[in-house]
Amino acid sequence: MGAPMPVPTPTTDAGTSLSALLRSATRAAHSSAEREPFVEQLMRGELGLDAYVDLLAQHRHVYAALEHADGLLRADPESAELVVDGLARSAAIEADLATLLGPTAARPRVLPETERYVARLHEVVGRWVGGYAAHAYTRYLGDLSGGQAIKAVLQRSYGLPAAAVGFYTFATIPKPKPFKDEYRARLDRLRLDADERVRVAEEACLAFELNADVFRGLGRTHRPSARG
Ligand code: HEM
To answer: For 120-171, how does the pLDDT look when each residue is reduced to its tens digit (9 = 90+)?
Structure first.
């Protein structure tokens, strides 16, 4: 993992909403995550299905760490707004892996990059509502955005059935756009002063960096093969 990325825009304006700040602060990191070779190759259908299964296996650890404190977060009125029914992905990941690998097969090993991501999640989730907001924003809004494009590729290029792409299927959120707008409004209602909003944006930049590191780790193992 590289050094934490500084928030690249001036952010002391007390009027900047958290959601606007998160979007602008992570714009560059988002572009580079999309351009990671592993991501580009996956989106072009150039990798074997084992590469996607490996990504999902890393997600299993990430989401377990992101979601382990959901009960605690729901108990606090401030963070409860961010823990929305139907967002949690852990159960869907387990079900997808059971479809793809079988219920009892060994899961792919956890990468060191994933271990670092998980360690950071354990440091903040359940301890700092702003940190939870940064990580929930990065993963869940991403799954509801580019994730939907990844789902289409998985179905088209690998012929995956619905039972294998539950991770990208939000049964209780049929329309991502209004949901994302509502989630941004909830982020904006957190009672954070300008300094803390900057810290949250920095944490989101770190979250993107941790995701990019996992892609690079996966890229060490999975390369495009000469698929028919
Ligand atoms: C295949 C790669 C990806 C594609 C094609 C993609 C595409 C997109 C698109 C089109 C949006 C805009 C949706 C909208 O305005 O409603 C979006 C938003 C977003 N993406 Fe991605 N994305 C990719 C990878 C990622 C990754 C790796 C992450 C983080 C781990 C991520 C996190 C986000 C977040 C947090 C948003 C919401 C931005 C906001 O509204 O503030 N994306 N993505």
So the answer is: 999 999 999 999 999 999 999 999 999 999 999 999 999 999 999 999 999 9
pLDDT in tens, 155-211: 999 999 999 999 999 999 999 999 999 999 999 999 999 999 999 999 999 999 999
- Alpha-carbon distance 157 to 73, whole Å? 38
Residue range(s) defining the domain that contains residue 27: 18-221
Asked whether residue 228 is assigned to any structural domain, the reply reads no
The number of folded domains in the chain is 1
Q: Is 200 a domain residue?
A: yes
**CA of 39 relative to ligand 1 center, distance in Å:** 12
Sign of CA dihedral 17, 134, 144, 34: positive
pTM (whole model) above 0.70: yes
- pLDDT at site 171: 96
Mutate to test the pocket of ligand 1, among 26, 30, 138 (most ligand atoms within 8 A of CB): 30
The CATH code of the domain that includes 152 is 1.20.910.10
Residue 215, helix vs strand vs coil: helix
Which is it for the CA torsion 94, 168, 166, 215, positive or negative? Answer: negative
Is the CB of 34 inside a 6 Å radius of any atom of ligand 1?
yes
6, part of any domain? no
Q: Report how far residue 181's alpha carbon sits from residue 200's, in angstroms, rounded to the nearest whole number.
A: 19
Inside any domain, residue 3: no
